[in-house]
Amino acid sequence: QVQLVESAGGLVQAGGSLRLSCAASGRTFSSYSMGWFRQAPGKEREFVAAISRSGGITNVADSVKGRFTISRDNAKNTVYLQMNSLKPEDTADYYCAARDKEYGPFNYWGQGTQVTVSS
Question: Which of 40, 25, 48, 37 has the alpha carbon at shortest distance from 95?
């Protein structure tokens, strides 16, 4: 099992940047591929980004491509989501997730952190 704890989100103006981090504990961090999801008020949770166990392969949703970057530091048991050029529509609760395999459903989730982008 792995436990995931996201850093605090926050309030940022449109056009600004914010970096989220997610610290993992439990089993060996490098054995998990990691992801970020988000859920806006009144909407379903949506995929944001994912990264392979080694960090060599990343996948980013079209809605954030070119603005968000996912990365990981296996030595620090941490995955990051760098968010640039933020828009009001990026306002959501952001969740860190882990899965035992490189592909398929994510089976471990953090508690979520709120990000609000003001216009």
Answer: 37
Both tokens of 14, joined, read 């449109």
Q: Are 96 and 87 in contact (CB under 8 A)?
A: no
What is the DSSP secondary structure assignment for residue 8, as one 8-state letter?
A: P
* Radius of gyration in angstroms for the set of CA atoms belonging to the chain, rounded to a whole number: 13
Q: Is 69 exposed, middle or buried (0-12, 13-18, 19+ CB in 10 A)?
A: middle
pLDDT tens digits for 41-84?
999 999 999 999 999 999 999 999 999 999 999 999 999 999 99
DSSP β-ladder status, 113-118 and 58-60: unpaired
Q: Which H/E stretch holds residue 118?
A: strand 113-118
**DSSP letter, residue 14:** T
CA distance 118 to 114: 13
Alpha helical stretches, state H, the chain: none
CB of 20 closer than 8 Å to CB of 83: yes
